[in-house]
Design brief:
The complex is a heterotrimer of chains A (499), B (457) and C (128).
Chain A (H helix, E strand, L loop, with lengths): L10 H4 L19 H4 L17 H12 L23 H6 L2 H4 L11 H18 L3 E3 L5 H18 L6 E5 L5 H8 L3 E5 L9 H7 L4 E6 L12 H10 L3 E5 L12 H4 L3 E3 L20 E3 L11 E5 L9 E5 L16 H39 L18 E4 L1 H7 L3 H10 L6 E2 L8 E4 L7 H20 L1 H5 L12 H6 L8
Parallel strand pairs in A: 2-3, 2-4, 4-5, 5-6
Antiparallel strand pairs in A: 1-7, 6-7, 8-9, 10-12, 11-12
Chain B lengths: L8 H11 L29 H13 L8 E2 L12 H7 L2 H4 L11 H18 L3 E2 L6 H16 L3 E5 L4 H14 L2 E5 L1 E2 L2 E2 L8 E8 L9 H10 L3 E6 L10 H4 L3 E5 L15 E5 L12 E5 L5 E5 L6 H4 L12 H38 L4 E3 L8 E6 L3 H10 L2 E2 L2 E2 L10 E5 L6 H18 L1 H6 L4
Parallel strand pairs in B: 1-15, 3-4, 3-7, 7-8, 8-9
Antiparallel strand pairs in B: 2-10, 5-6, 9-10, 11-12, 13-14, 14-17, 16-17
Chain C lengths: L10 E3 L3 E6 L2 E6 L1 H7 L2 E5 L6 E2 L4 E7 L3 E5 L4 E6 L9 H4 L8 E5 L11 H8 L1
Antiparallel strand pairs in C: 1-2, 2-3, 3-9, 4-6, 5-8, 6-7, 8-9
The chains are: A alpha/beta (499), B alpha/beta (457), C alpha+beta (128).
Chain lengths: 499, 457, 128
Amino acid sequence: MIRAADDELTIYERSKAGRRAFAPPALDVPERPLDELLPSALRRSEPPRLPEVSEPEIVRHFNRLSKRNFDLDTGFYPLGSCTMKHNPKLHERIAALPGHAKLHPLQDPSRAQGALELMWRLQEALSEIAGLPHVSLQPSAGSHGELAGVLLTRAFHENRGEHRTKVLTPDTAHGTNPATVTMAGYEVVKVGSDAHGNVDLDDLRAKADEDVACLMLTNPSTLGLFETGIEEVAKIVHGVGATLYYDGANLNAIMGICRPGDMGFDIVHFNLHKSFTQPHGGGGPGSGPIAVSDRIEPYLPRPQVVRRERSENGATPYYDLEYDRPKSIGRLRGFQGNYGVFVRSYAYIRSLGAPGLREVSEVAVLNANYLLARLRREGVLEYLPAAHERLCMHEFVLSGAPMKRELQIKTLDLAKRLLDYGVHPPTVYFPLIVDEALLIEPTETETKETLDRFAEIIAEILREAREDPELARNAPYTTPVRRLDEAAAARNPVVRQPL
Amino acid sequence: MTRYTSVTDADLREMLAEIGVQSIEDLFEEIPAQLRLARPLALDHGLAEQEVFEELRALAQRNVSTDDEVSFLGAGMYDHYVPALIDSIILRSEFLTPYTPYQPEISQGGLQAMFEYQTAISELTGLPVSNASVYEGPSAVGAAGYVAKLDNGRGRFVVSRGVHPHSRETLRTLSHGWGIEVVEAPLSEGVTELPALDHSVSAVIIQQPNFLGVVEDLEPLARTAHDAGALLICACDPLPLALLRSPGECGVDIAVGEGQTLGNRLDFGGPSFGFFAATQALMRRVPGRIAGETRDVDGKRGFVLTLQTREQHIRRERATSNICTSQALNALAGVIYLSWLGRRGIVELVELMIQRTAYARERLAGIEGVEPLLEQPVVREFAVKLDAPVERVIARCREHGVNPGYALGTDYPEFSDCLLVAITERRTRADIDRLADALAAALAAERPEYAESGAQS
Amino acid sequence: MADASYPEELLYHSEHDWARVDGDTATFGITWYAQDSLGELVFFEAPAVGTSVTKDQPYAEIESVKAVSDVIAPLSGEVVEVNPGLSGSPETVNEDPYGEGWLVKVKLSDASETESLLDSADYQATLA
């Protein structure tokens, strides 16, 4: 292990034999010899080498670590495709209520009616937002929802006696799409984009045949542009009997404006950690519910949350977990999903209501277009042109290729220099079809002043680069650590503390 | 304007002017008119914060939580005590609100916490490579199966009937897409009995302790799997690993499990986290995020996401998994909890549980109409046979504020007369005595002849 | 890192691989362009000695921090030797892609396949 003098110690390096934070309750039952209860042949000879620290040390250690993190509550986080919107503080108070937090997943449904009703109501709301009638809350994340969608597609075709082998994804797709396709046992076929940033309809027509099970699409696309030809896309895909899958990562642009179900999508997944404010937690937890059309409904995962008009003992209405689903694809995980996330998302939907959700999308799109316009006014777009000359939706892509040519700094260098200005960089090098891509999504919870400031900062960094490109190339300077040797970490991975 | 947006009329005028449009409507002009939603969403109006709170509180009050009853319900998630320091740390903005650490220079807190978590899981499982967590237990079993498939390309999994029913079902759902056949190995006297294995077997999957609470002997199972060239995957309850021989030591190739008991709440089943640890040989096939140590340009130690070429954002269709995230906040709670327990504390905790479990097993066995299902060693969960319909006994106990456990017949027709009872450090001797009284009373009510002879012997 | 170069004596495949033919065996590697596009290389898993490789088909993968790429066989044959130094120091491929950074040596099954490969000038033309 490397150790420099001013390193932040790990908790193992702070450990000292004999220290402790936990004291067990006293043994209140007759003590039996351990060998009688658990033969020594089944026991380990040495306990696992966990830390030995007191409570004050633990608290100080993790507090110190926390101060080496940038976070959304502290600063602007325009990460394209991630929808870094404010996490309402009310939600933590609600999620901590014992009736929600201390409920065992196998509690009898008759004694979990509050939870099941909440889940049912959330399903109804998501169904309305998506424009599709049936919802499963089971998948644990967006990519999990994608997997569910492709497995549902497989079940749909198999039930018709068909065994298709291919799934189409656009070349702008998020990496989870092709990875999901392979995990579901299909072959990935890429569909190109046209000069306007939309799916190339000619390429789609050429590749859509009766061996294609599904087309996976995001709308707006990962370029932040609305697929204006979506109706034609749906016609082509349905015309060969395939399903149309909607990756809900960009839902923040269209809530209350238009609905994927109305565009012809059969299956939609939501990212509750994007549009529905589940805190990102540094990389999870999230939740990826799906909404589907009538013809896909029989295959939904098991169990489903349902509402019955009358229970066995006459209670009305009665919310239940339905397991008897003969055509279901089965389970994708244990129990019934990330309930703690449902509580927060449901609270959000109740807080905003129909007018509030529509306003979210209006302001998300307003903020993105405004930021693009401000960057144009600052002269930024001369070095970082928008990938397509169109109105964007809730996010937009710039290309750093001219900046690289003329100022000798790359998108990566710009991102690292942004760290010195106290702003989280946008998403870099995605989507893949844009050279030196910079994907910017401000979200609706940012003020105009924050957007103005961001545009000024980018302009300033470009000015710096014109004078001295080395400045950005060696950035950042003011962060807890500077640029890290990722190649060394990948060549000789050290993934745990040696003890 | 809602409470989370800030666009005033003045702001709006300036912004529209800067963009060069007349109204917000103009920004949506590319959307074909026939696709526009012609009405508001059929959802209620938004509510004030206190109204939302009251509604969500009313829903909470219609749930019977572990605060409302003495619960012996386990079967995959358990009512442990979550120490106060966990919330005080994980609810900090700096841990709660950031994204995945793609810019490591400003994410050292999260990345170092992942590294410390990976170390703790490696210690518990006895395997050198742990990732930064996956969604939860049963899908971790599925992810392990996918790794086996990538590793040896064979077409069959052998999964023990002792593996959690949700994990077995999840594995089947996923395997269907891979064209992999899943066959079940039976339990005999409460432990896994492996059939003869041939070279079609990609992996053997077992659980430790198994769903009946029984401790399996992992080493012979590992030998049998390896003799056939198959991997051994073990789904583990993490706390008993403080006492049990580690999976790594016994020859397990991949150890996964449900992490809820490590500092996370029940939350009606999620979110929690799954852990995933493997041998060095499998390192480059492990799914999910992995934090690694390195240096910065000044020579300072730092941590980065490493081996990213395994993952979807680079390898795309050839990724080791489609997983995009981890369960970072839940895994953080996990490493804080394991640090709080500490090296001695975790042993003391599990020894306390094993003693109370033994006491509970004995007390219940002494009740007329209750018989232990098995005699094998258990750690914190065990099954008893009841001489009356299990569902009715459970209902009666509940009326007296005791949730006696899980009706095994839900998933195991061969054990339809059995109850699965779970012990945690929250269940005191007094609670166990209360369980015994409640069971005795319930059985007496169901079987009047017991009431005559006395419900306890 | 070496400067861009494409030695005259080598043969090139359009997927950015080179072959140095010596009688009935050939040495394969990736070109300067390939290593420059990938960035600092971190991992190369060589196929086992004895594996058959087929012209135009991938025979291995090479990884940098941020990318994975198939390595395409310029010619068909059987692997007779793999570069032992690469598992410890894959960055050798960046530093010396045509010398110390060779990947595998292959006993050729069909020497006439060399006719479809490009010379240095023609390969460089494809990069323009």
